[in-house]
């Protein structure tokens, strides 16, 4: 690589120098986090509670001491404005007061009993009202909820195959880790410990390709399509105009059910992207933000699918179904979900978030244009992302081609050292009801200064 090489419009020599300076600055600023990271390395695999906590841009993990609203503090006493928000887990702010009060109240009244709590029926009623699906069940994460949904729908349809889009959705269900490489479905190499070939039962096509979808479903042997309405796992990929309307017609024609995961796209409004855009999924999943950050998830079915699911269960031999865990729908999570749904995830909260996200997206576009960079900005409600291409990608292959982990990490670390946190994966930013216009202005100023250093 020569001194005058550019990547995505960035002078790469300057980028590398900036990266070295930012790493040195991070190390100097965070001695307590460094000491805690060293201590953690003695008894934790990879030195962190979960291995992906090493995927941030930092030389060692940043240790958080407390988080409230749109900000948090680290172990060294530095304050940060948080535009990551737990990668959607805290999309409505850290420790929303209503949820904190509900948790404190429930804490003295029990956590789990393997029986319904008084909050269960009100939560299910609100989910039905908000999302338009009448029947619901609960899990501890969206990944678990999707595992359960796939099991239910395979049983209900008598079909074993599922279909996903190239680039995946954001969860960790084993079945979905299938990519297209030169048009050929292959199991993702990074999936650890998988003992059977996923391509036997998982079909993969490109997002926004109706002809490929039609061809993949032509055998009438696919139980369901599992998708986010907007792809987010590989960077945001928006559906082309009319795509989902046409795709749903194709699915109905072939008897294939549609499962929409709204865990990230709940940024679109109180009823998620599907409700806001007139989609009619057969099943819907929402994970981490639904309880204000408490581990929980929900999944719902239409009346017809619920009837088929119940029939499949009743027709099966007695015994363990493989669906659900002991702590699913525990009293603690149900209390948090009820408070969050009724008092936090309100129309008014979304109005605040949408206005801030509009300000953020406009400011990002302005800075990118001012520095002459061939980048674009994509927005889905309160969720905004800048991407290293002049036009938004149309499918997973295009989105994957524009990713640049090194450049992402340089930008992320530059912002982090100035008290601004964005997600470690891609360039995604969230705002919450407690985010202020001044917070957004600070982020935009930091982003502009970073671009100046790079260009």
Automatic annotation (TrEMBL):
The UniProt record lists the keyword Heme: no
Cofactor: pyridoxal 5'-phosphate
Name of the protein described by the UniProt record: Aspartate aminotransferase family protein
Pfam families: Aminotran_3 (PF00202)
InterPro entries: Aminotrans_3 (IPR005814), PyrdxlP-dep_Trfase (IPR015424), PyrdxlP-dep_Trfase_major (IPR015421), PyrdxlP-dep_Trfase_small (IPR015422)
UniProt keyword annotations, A-Z: Aminotransferase, Pyridoxal phosphate, Transferase
Keyword flag Transferase: yes
GO MF entry, a single one: pyridoxal phosphate binding
Family the UniProt entry places it in: Belongs to the class-III pyridoxal-phosphate-dependent aminotransferase family.
């Amino acid at each position: 690589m020569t001194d005058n090489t550019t990547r995505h419009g960035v002078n790469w020599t300057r980028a590398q120098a900036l990266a070295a300076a930012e790493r040195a600055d991070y190390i100097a600023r965070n001695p307590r986090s460094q000491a805690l990271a060293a201590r953690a390395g003695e008894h934790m695999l990879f030195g962190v509670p979960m291995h992906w906590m090493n995927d941030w841009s930092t030389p060692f993990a940043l240790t958080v001491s407390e988080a409230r609203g749109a900000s948090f503090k680290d172990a060294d006493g530095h304050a940060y404005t948080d535009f990551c928000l737990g990668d959607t887990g805290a999309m409505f702010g850290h420790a929303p007061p209503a949820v904190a009060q509900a948790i404190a109240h429930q804490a003295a009244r029990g956590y789990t009993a393997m029986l319904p709590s008084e909050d269960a029926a009100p939560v299910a009623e609100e989910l039905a009202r908000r999302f338009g699906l009448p029947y619901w069940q609960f899990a501890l994460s969206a990944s678990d909820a999707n595992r359960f949904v796939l099991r239910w729908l395979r049983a209900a349809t008598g079909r074993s195959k599922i279909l996903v889009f190239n680039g995946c959705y954001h969860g960790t269900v084993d079945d979905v880790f299938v990519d297209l490489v030169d048009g050929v479905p292959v199991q993702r190499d990074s999936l650890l410990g998988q003992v059977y070939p996923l391509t036997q039962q998982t079909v993969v096509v490109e997002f926004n390709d109706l002809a490929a979808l039609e061809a993949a479903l032509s055998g009438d042997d696919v139980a369901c399509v599992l998708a986010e309405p907007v792809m987010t796992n590989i960077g945001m990929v928006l559906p082309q105009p009319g795509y989902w309307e046409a795709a749903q017609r194709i699915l109905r024609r072939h008897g294939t059910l549609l499962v929409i995961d709204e865990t990230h796209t709940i940024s679109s409004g109180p009823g998620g992207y599907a409700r806001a855009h007139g989609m009619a999924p057969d099943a819907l999943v929402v994970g981490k933000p639904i309880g204000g950050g408490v581990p929980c998830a929900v999944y719902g079915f239409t009346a017809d699918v619920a009837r088929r699911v119940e029939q499949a269960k009743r027709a099966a031999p007695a015994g363990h179904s493989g669906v659900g865990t002991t702590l699913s729908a525990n009293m603690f999570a149900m209390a948090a979900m009820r408070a969050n749904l009724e008092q936090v995830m309100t129309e008014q909260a979304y109005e605040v978030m949408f206005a801030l996200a509009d300000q953020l997206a406009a400011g990002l576009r302005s800075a990118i244009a001012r520095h002459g960079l061939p980048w674009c900005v994509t927005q889905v409600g309160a969720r905004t992302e800048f991407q290293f291409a002049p036009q938004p990608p149309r499918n997973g292959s295009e989105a994957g081609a524009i990713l640049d982990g090194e450049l992402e990490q340089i930008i992320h670390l530059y912002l982090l050292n100035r008290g601004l946190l964005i997600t470690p994966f891609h360039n995604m930013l969230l705002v919450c009801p407690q985010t202020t216009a001044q917070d957004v202005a600070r982020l935009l100023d930091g982003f502009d200064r970073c671009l100046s250093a790079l260009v």
